[in-house]
Amino acid sequence: MPSYNSTHQPESVLAGASRRDRFAEWVDRHCGTFFIAPAVTLILIFAIFPTIYSLFFAVSRVRFTPDGLKFRFVGLRNFSKQFFGSAEVHFLGRTEPVHVIGMIIFALIVIAIVWWWFRSFKKATWVGMIGRTISAAMGIFLSWILCASLLSGNAIGTLYTTLFYVIVGCALQFIIGTGLAFLCSQPISGKNFFRVVFFIPLMITPLGIGYAMRMLADVSKGPIQPLLGVFGLGDWVWSVDAWSARFVMMIGDSWQWIPFIFICMLAALENIPRDHVEAAQVDGASSFQIFREITWPQIVPVAVTVLLIRMIEAFKIVDLPNIMTGGGPGSATESMTLNAMYIWRANDLGSSAAIAYLLLILTVVVCASFFNYVVLGRIRRPN
Amino acid sequence: MNDSGYRFDASRKTLAQRVFEAPSVGKMSPAAKLIAYTLLLTWTLIVLFPIYWVVITSFKDQAAVNQGPFYIPFVDFQPTLDAWRVQFTEDPNCNVASIARQFGLLAHNSVVFILSPIVTITPMEPQICKIYLAFTNSIVISVFATFLCVLVGSMAAYALARIQYQPKFGNIMMFVLLIVGVIVATSYYKIPWWVSSTIALVMFFFLVRSIGRFFKMKLGNGDILFWIISQRILPPIVVVIPIYVMFQAVRLLDTHIALILLYAVANMPIVVWLMHDFFANLPIELEESAQLDGATRLGIFREIVLPLTRPGLAATTMLILVLSWNEYLFAVFLATVKVQTMPIMVAAKNTGEKGIFWWEMSALIVVMIIPVIVMAILLTRFITKGVLSGAIKG
Amino acid sequence: MTGNSTKTSVKFENVEKSFGAVQVLKNFDLEVEPGEFIVLLGASGSGKTTALRILSGLETPTGGRVYIEGQDITDVLPKYRNISMVFQSYALYPHKTVAENIGFPLKVRKVSKDIMDSSILEAAKQVQLDGLLERFPKELSGGQRQRVALARAIIRRPSVFLMDEPLSNLDAKLRGHMRAELKHMQQSMGITTIYVTHDQIEAMTLAHRVAILEKGVLQQLATPAEIYNNPANLFVAQFIGSPPMNVVHGALDGSNFITQGVRIPTKVQGNIEKAVMGIRPEDCTVAPTSEGTLIGKIYTNELIGDHTLVTVDWGGDQISVKAPKDFTGMQGDDIGLVIPSDRLFVFDESTGNRVR
Q1: Least CB-CB distance to C85: which of B283, B292, B307?
Q2: C122 in reach of chain A (CB within 8 A)
Q3: How many domains does chain C contain in total?
Q4: What is the average pLDDT value for chain A, to the nearest integer?
Q5: What is the span of the domain harbouring residue C54?
Q6: What is the model's pLDDT at position B25?
Q7: Domain match, C37 and C134 both
Q8: How many Cβ atoms from other residues are within 10 Å of residue B251's Cβ?
Q9: A155: which DSSP letter?
Q10: Do C108 and B292 touch (CB under 8 A)?
């Protein structure tokens, strides 16, 4: 056994403990504040303050003068212009005439929303009720625009172009991304190769993707030209038709973002405990039953979270339409961000800020509704 | 014979069973295998073909591009280096030494900025060709922005994960008001930023001591975390116009610092979100033990926490590096001439009257995306290990 | 013996701690003599670890004061308390070598390099780690990791040693060995030690005094022998001893304990409607049915080695008895049990208190 009697500890070791440097201790006690303050300050200066400042722009007519900007208060005119004034068709699309089918569908949607709103009276708190009221109002407004423009056979504006990018883009990317993730989670060889390759597009500069897609989609000199000839589409030009232009945009966007869904869903699939699947296999479940009963319920919480993240980013889309079509034909592929950018270039800072604000409101309401009613609901539900 | 028992004879499988049923657990049936590999290889093709096309286009000449699609170099068309040569010959200043000069210039200009409250020195004008300029600008901006973002973001994430933090609502409101005051004073009344921020800081400490105690409502760590992460919802177009005006007021428009700060803030929510997860998953005993041993919070963070989260830190850093490298919207507004980044420079090539020279454009795009592809391949290593998968668990 | 001058006393005074609505420590009073080895023993959730963490400064009590050497340290930061702690998981820094791990407390105190190096060597020698200083924790065995944690704790000669179940991650054989070493080390260094465990064998073998906690309340504070031979209440009686003390339900009538109609004479007096009799397995003996105080049926018997453990059915209770190893009763046989009245404890069933 060792002897502890020889233990000799230097005095300075003990002395260090009793020395109290008051300043150092004060710093240490308030370390939390010092750790968090830089981040909070930066966010306040470069995110919160500009958001508030932007409101000034949105309610003013702004002019550049030699000694700086001149603001003239115009009330909500910049906003009302988007709904009732000169920019109405550009923003909302053409809302007249309303077709009968559009009317009927609108009526059905309104009934459904109002019913949902009344039903939640019992269980929601008053804060929740305010949120639900805002969501319901936004839902009714959006469905009115949808029914009056798209469902009545009229052209849509930048509002619904943006929503088209968000909804169709998210759905397409989610389905393909999850499908690929599911394939990659199967017992196949070369998993790591597929993972690396499938991941790459997410990292590539969106601007580069814009140009690359423009080259690829070139109907006369691009690589798909012979293919079009085979299908008898030799003289078809996607960029002159509004819907085909939007769909080509979606292909570019999906090429970039499917990897994101793929990576997240693959991680979720591989996190499922092996023994759950094995237990089901022993119980004699088929592959499809295993997917529906075991796998799917366990990846739903991740799936909705991933969808939310993707949705938040999708609202910001700008590079791709800017590069591929410049917003054309007409303004068919203009997202709201791109719209605001063009108006800024035309030196109408007030309207630009107003559109940006409308985008902010749209994003926040849609994403917060999705978060509250879908993401939280899914996570709280026991699996 | 006992017929009640279930008997299985592998040799009696029907053809359909052989094709559609897995031979054993953990394997796939031949049919499923065929479908899976077909789909996966198709998608591999879809992913790689655009990249391939851009690369080969950069080796084409005008004729090879304009006369319709040619797919395979040396077979369909004769590759040339013309498009690449143009990038480095259009400007007489284009040579390797320019890179070194650009860094010296950056150092000089940073010193100028730091000293700007004290002495006035004119920043040096860059004198080099566009592609070097854009490339070095991109590197400098994304590296510094990433460093700032990861440092500040992970400090905040650590504080939120480990230190019980209950700021009073009133103090926060005061802080916000003072920052608004600083910004207004700086950009409107042209008071130098270091004067106004010092006054505000001093005022803040006095106000916290005096008024602060009358406020009772407190926030928790979760609230702050959610607030920071939710900043990602903010569309950049909302803030870019006011930021343009703010930077104009402090004469930071078209500087590296402006973009560095903006990129750092824009990506902060991602860093906080990912790093918070890594920090929260560290065994807390390590930090407690260090605390008992006499380490300060900063010491614990530097000595224990950061080394232990190194994989997560590396993955997050790479992700932010790529996001900063790719950023377009802020740069379009704020980097007009001197600090053009790669994406802005490539986009500017679009405005030729004779249409786009696709071969030159392709060469530029290749230059632009090579670093991110390298990053992507490095990043997958972390993703395979599951480093980044924790945060999305919901 | 060296180090007498550094022996330190510790005192908890009315310490309370609650997490939200859950009160994990109630009115906790404990005085530790200088140089004493105190074991806090309890099941998980008994508040023993919380008490330790309050002393270490990692938790702040909601009420009461804590003193080290008579000095109120309730609100002092952990680093000024001059205590060191060994965690259940050892809390070794995986990115630092053994030497760096051991030297960390000195490093953060900015001790000069020479002193640090010699101290590391000395501390490593004390726990027999000299050859392993350049290794990383993941290259060490469980016992070696344990030693690194110990070395890190002793290197700066703390006034108080705190140990939070330090042996529970080791396998059984190593645990016995480390236990002996820990005891030897504490004895020779003479540092006041507070040791938390749920293992009664560790508590009995290591401690000068054992403090048993249950649901945040101190049940008994006494020497191991006292706790075993003279439990303060039913909880302590049942918690200590392996196999645990037998419990028979019944009533106390004067100086007799009545169960299933059988009267067993006791040394205590009282009239309790619902009482519990406790008797340790080694204190009763098996006997032919004619001589037994009680007669029951054998439920099962297990040969342990040096004795046979016979379990006997007695109404709703089971009584275990240590019988000779050549005992040959069969399951279902009738058997008599002799219960000596001077080795028998009586408790009030409603309060759990000992009837004396």
Answers
A1: B292
A2: yes
A3: 2
A4: 83
A5: 4-239
A6: 63
A7: yes
A8: 9
A9: P
A10: no
